[in-house]
Design goal:
The chain is α/β, with parallel strands linked by helices. It has 2 domains: about 5-85 and about 210-295, D-Maltodextrin-Binding Protein, domain 2 (3-Layer(aba) Sandwich), CATH 3.40.190; about 90-205, Periplasmic binding protein-like II (D-Maltodextrin-Binding Protein, domain 2, 3-Layer(aba) Sandwich), CATH 3.40.190.10. Helices cover about 30% and strands about 20% of the residues. It has helices at about 20-25, 45-50, 60-70, 120-130, 165-170, 195-205, 220-225, 225-245, 260-275, 290-295, and strands at about 5-10, 30-35, 55-60, 75-85, 90-95, 110, 140, 160, 175-180, 190, 210-220. The chain has a 6-stranded mixed beta sheet with strand order 8-7-6-9-5-10. Strand 6, helix 4 and strand 7 form a beta-alpha-beta unit. The chain is globular, with a radius of gyration of 20 Å.
Length: about 300
């Protein structure tokens, strides 16, 4: 019997503990070889992935994938979460300018790196669902273009002047709040959501787990021609996660594998993306996958 050809995959992948065993070669395969792109921060590779189809395999923000699917980009989603986290701790304000709470956001100016940024999609959806924020009454100020060249921000989005910095605008009072990320670069800033860690836990417990940020995608032509490679890649990443955290609790583990384990998070991201006008139509979770990836467990 002829041995299947070993395939080299040009790969976009960040350097995280849950994939360390793949990056350092501790977990390897007879079917695939990874050629890792020299990109220090994975999100800097999202544009070349969706605009130029530069990579065979890669992590991709789930919001960006939904848009890529809407524009028929040649990638298949693999139900392996590479990056997941709570989101409510990522939005900050400057308390020296007065107290601010989610219920105060109507009429305020809120900065976000890009309107289509997956963290921003999650935070806006959570503010609406958990705190009753009317997103249409908030002025959203952006600093970067979308990853997809075909997509144009909605008419209600305001672009910050060229050269402006999101944190400095917040400190100068030009923004009332801003979605900044896991860590705030200035000690004067404070989370908009009180006890954000507890709020993130409550959200995860109510909504099927910690929200997805990045999942794996594979070039469609490879996935269709080599389902054995798809299954092998999925297994390699699952083994790498188990090597990093063998006792991780299933319910609140951010690195979930398989469609069912990620279904609720994907349903919410589809809903938020449609409601926020990132995608033109709703789809089902099952429509995100092909026959091979839908069956992965």
């Amino acid at each position: 019997m002829t041995r299947p050809e070993r395939l080299k995959l040009h790969t976009l992948l960040g350097n995280y503990p849950n994939v360390a065993a793949i990056r350092n070669g501790a977990i390897a395969s007879d079917l695939v070889e990874f050629d890792f792109a020299d990109i220090a921060v994975a999100n800097r590779g999202f544009k070349p992935l969706v605009r130029e189809a530069r990579f065979d395999l890669g992590e991709l923000a789930i919001g960006t994938f939904l848009q890529a699917r809407a524009y028929a980009k040649p990638y298949v989603l693999i139900p392996a979460t590479i990056l997941g986290r709570g989101q409510l701790h990522t939005i900050a304000y400057d308390p020296s300018r007065g107290h601010l709470a989610p219920s105060d956001l109507a009429g305020k100016r809120v900065g976000v790196r890009a309107y289509t940024q997956t963290t921003g999609v999650w935070v806006r959806g959570m503010l609406a669902d958990f705190y009753g924020v009317d997103l249409a009454r908030v002025c959203w100020v952006t600093f970067e273009d979308p990853h997809l060249a075909e997509y144009e921000d909605p008419e209600f989005i305001e672009r910050a002047p060229a050269g402006k910095d999101i944190v400095q605008m917040l400190l100068d009072g030009e923004l009332d709040a801003a979605i900044i990320g896991d860590t705030f670069p200035d000690a004067r800033l404070k989370p908009l959501v009180p006890d954000a860690a507890a709020a993130n836990r409550a959200w995860a417990q109510k909504n099927g787990g910690i929200p997805i940020n990045h999942m794996l995608v594979m070039r469609q032509s490879i996935a269709h021609a080599r389902p054995d490679v798809v299954k092998d890649v999925f297994d390699l990443f699952r083994r790498a996660r188990q090597a990093d955290a063998p006792d991780a609790p299933d319910a609140l583990d951010p690195y979930r594998f398989g469609v069912e384990a990620n279904r609720r998070s994907l349903e919410l991201m589809i809903d938020y993306s449609f409601r926020q006008r990132l995608i033109p139509n709703r789809c089902t979770v099952d429509e995100l996958f092909d026959a091979t990836t839908r069956a992965l467990r």
